[in-house]
Amino acid sequence: MTTHKKILDLISNHISPDKEETELVTALFEPFSCEAGTLLEKEGKTAKYLYFVNSGFIRTFHFMEGSEITTHINCPPGFITSFHSFISETPAFDNVEAVTSADLLRITKQNLDLLYGQSNGWAEFGRAVYEKSLGYNEARSRDMITLSAEQRYLKLLEKQPEIVRNVPLKYISSFLGIEPQSLSRIRRKITS
Fold it and tell me: Residue 62: is it exposed, middle or buried by C-beta count within 10 angstroms (0-12/13-18/19+)?
């Protein structure tokens, strides 16, 4: 049960799961650990799992003109996968990789559908997670357009300092849409 504590706590912030719903979550979400650099889902293949991050940092990225473009960095607790691929069961446009060693829970699409079918509470929780994700993506898109590079970095530093402390700068700079050299200059300016 301790491996499922964070996901159950997160669910409890949105609904009051009953004993059956708690048992379903612990039965269907499989514990999984991996080392840094582990490719969890691969571009061109259908994403097999939705991951819940207990500890560690996971990123999504794709290749563009020979460069890796990091589109998302997830820190615990939270969900990550190649979402469109996982939901639609079509080939992924991006990769999912462990940036650090990570302790995860994972669930297949078939088991997630089973969970939705057997638990009204889970369906409500899933909707809340989906709405939060849409809001995050909308805010991120707006920030990329309206904030300067320095403002984007300062916002990340304020809102998610654990990413700055644990994720290599090359991934952070890509995620923020900043050249690595420019990010280094911004960091020097902030610390001086």
Answer: middle
